[in-house]
Specification:
Blueprint lengths: L32 E9 L31 H25 L4 E4 L1 H6 L1 H10 L2 E4 L12 H19 L5 E2 L9 H8 L4 E2 L9 E5 L2 E5 L20 H18 L5 E7 L1 H4 L2 H17 L2 E3 L2 H11 L6
Parallel strand pairs: 1-2, 1-8, 1-9, 2-3, 4-5
Antiparallel strand pairs: 6-7
Length: 309
């Protein structure tokens, strides 16, 4: 008996990857781990009644989801905290350590708070598109998704002074997303996958396309999800354990570590202390490259043929 996949739209599933032959990556300065800090900036682009949506947003401090016929002022306020206070606490932290980060930025969120876009530009952080809004793109038609993609590119370029060259969807792409990215032609990579520890190439519409896998494992969203982090100490312990294991593996096969952050969550004082301690810990251990995802992608494009297998 044999299970045969159906011919369905979208990319083919791929279970093998690098397998036992993981490339011996050479990062800048021979770092053992490339750490990518990803700040999901979504505040103001989420579902809300004022935005004309028929439902309220979740992923706030409470698991309760209010009926969509009512306006949820509580959740709206939690998201506002991220753009009013949390993002600036993160700004002070990253400025202190002079660490470059990638903004997974929803275009509408930047429009609602232009000063955040100004900081991104001044500090040299990377604007990676998180969509026009923080939306479920699989509910759009192919043409609607294309139009939203173009709107996101235009808005981010106008707000940040440069177009996005990376892409990351909310929760996951549609069956059309990667094809649309390649058709548009200006993207260096996407992060709409969770299936590896290292970048890899895939073929899209006959062209080679780079994927920088993301992760939901090292992610502050677990502060508000069931069975998640009970305290900042849990978050710190998880980050340190993951980093240490990747660092040990990196003695022979350097790795990449992605860490997901949200201003409304990690931006709270008690939580951000854990992130600060992790940055201090990683820098003290050494052989680490804190990099924007675009820097990792460009390094991979330039050097991947030099990596031994």
């Amino acid at each position: 008996m044999q299970l045969i996949d159906q011919d369905v739209p979208g990319p083919k599933r791929e279970f093998i990857g690098y397998g036992r032959h993981v490339p011996k990556v050479i990062w800048p300065d021979k770092a053992r781990v490339a750490v990518s800090l990803c700040l999901n900036y979504e505040e103001g682009s989420e579902n809300s009644k004022p935005a004309g949506d028929g439902k309220n947003e979740g992923l706030a401090e409470l698991s309760y989801l209010m009926d969509g016929k009512f306006r949820d002022l509580c959740v709206e306020s939690v998201y506002e905290y991220g753009s009013r206070a949390g993002v600036w606490r993160l700004q002070r932290l990253f400025d202190e350590f002079e660490i470059p980060i990638t903004f997974y930025a929803a275009a509408v969120a930047l429009e609602r708070n232009p000063e955040v876009a100004a900081w991104l530009k001044e500090a040299g952080h990377e604007p990676c598109s998180h969509g026009w809004r923080w939306e479920e793109v699989w509910q759009l038609s192919r043409e609607e998704e294309r139009q939203h993609m173009l709107a996101a590119i235009e808005t981010i370029e106008r707000m940040c002074g440069e177009r996005p060259r990376g892409w990351y969807c909310r929760y996951g792409p549609s069956e059309h997303t990667r094809e649309l990215l390649v058709e548009e032609g200006g993207f260096t990579y996407d992060s709409d996958a969770y299936n590896d520890d290292l970048p890899y190439y895939t073929e899209v519409s006959g062209k080679q396309h780079l994927v920088l896998p993301y992760t939901l494992t090292y992610n502050d969203g677990k502060f508000v999800m069931p069975q998640g982090y009970g305290s900042p100490a849990d978050f710190l312990d998880h980050l340190k354990r993951g980093f240490d294991y990747l660092w040990d593996e990196g003695a022979t096969h350097p790795r990449m570590m992605s860490i997901g952050l949200h201003p409304r969550l990690i931006g709270q004082a008690g939580r951000i202390s854990a992130l600060k301690e992790f940055i201090e810990y990683a820098l003290a251990k050494g052989d680490v490259w804190f990099a924007r995802r675009l820097d990792i992608a460009e390094w991979w494009h330039k050097h991947h043929t030099e990596f031994e297998v």
